[in-house]
Design a protein that fits this description.
homodimer; about 160 residues; alpha+beta; Muramoyl-pentapeptide Carboxypeptidase, domain 2; 4-stranded antiparallel sheet; 4 strands; globular; TRAPPC6/Trs33 (chains A, B); NO_sig/Golgi_transp_ligand-bd (chains A, B)
Chain lengths: ~160, ~160
Amino acid sequence: MADTVLFEFLHTEIVAELWAHDPDPGPGGQKMSLSVLEGMGFRVGQALGERLPRETLAFREELDVLKFLCKDLWVAVFQKQMDSLRTNHQGTYVLQDNSFPLLLPMASGLQYLEEAPKFLAFTCGLLRGALCTLGIESVVTASVAALPICKFQVVIPKS
Amino acid sequence: MADTVLFEFLHTEIVAELWAHDPDPGPGGQKMSLSVLEGMGFRVGQALGERLPRETLAFREELDVLKFLCKDLWVAVFQKQMDSLRTNHQGTYVLQDNSFPLLLPMASGLQYLEEAPKFLAFTCGLLRGALCTLGIESVVTASVAALPICKFQVVIPKS
C-alpha cells in the first residue's frame, strides 16, 4: 500500500528540495530546476521502459507505443490509466489525465496554476525517457488549464 | 511491478543529482548532501508513518514499535522484511538487512564501501521520521561492513 504513495512523497520532496536550494529563484533558476527534474524523469523513464513488458509491441505503429505508455507506464507509476489520447496523425499526441496524481495535493484554485509546472517536469521527462527506450525521439511538454486536469503533448518529429 | 523499482530508480537519481551539483565536493559538501538526503527521508518517513496501519500498536512497548518498522515499514518501502533486530534493552536497537535493496546495484567489492553512506542517509531519515510520527525521538545511523549487508542503529535517548 505504501509504495503507491512512496513515489508521490519522494517526488514532492525532490521538488521542494530543488526549489529550496535553487541558487537563483528568478526565471533562470526556475528553468534550471525544471531542467534537472526533467532530466531525472528522463532517466527514470528510460529505466522503466526497459522493464515494462514489451513483447506485444513488436512491429506495431507509433500510435500503439503511445497507447502502451498511456496504459502500462501510467499504471506502473500512477496506478491508473491515462484518461484520453488524441492525435492529429501527424506526429502530435495529446495525453490527458483528468486527475493527475502529482497535482492532486494542490488545492484546485486558479492561484496555484503558476505552481503547476514544477509538478509536471519530472513526468514530461518520464514520458520522453520511456519513448527513447522504445526507439522514439520526442519533445514532451505539459499544460494545465484547470487543476488537477493535465495535458501532456508529445511531438514526434518526422525523420 | 514497476513501482517496486520506481522508488529505487528515483532514489538513485536523487543521490546522483545531489552529488553532481554539490557546490563543495569535499567533506563539508558531502556532509550537506547527506543531511539533505536524511531530511528528505525524515519527511517521507513521517508521512508514511501516518499511513501505515497502526491499530495494533496501541499501548505497546518500544520494542514493538521497532518490530513494526522492521516488518510493516520495510515491506511498504522495500517489499521485504528486515532480517534481524537486536537490542541491549537500554534504548539501542540494531536492525540488520542482509541484502539492503539500495545497496544491491553496487558491486560488492571493498572499494565501493566508501560510496555506501550516500545510499544510506535517506533510509536513516526514513526510520527517524517514522519513529517521530509514532511518538519516539531517536538518532539513527547506518554502517556497512560488507556489501550489501547493512546495519541501522537506532538509539532512543531515555527521557
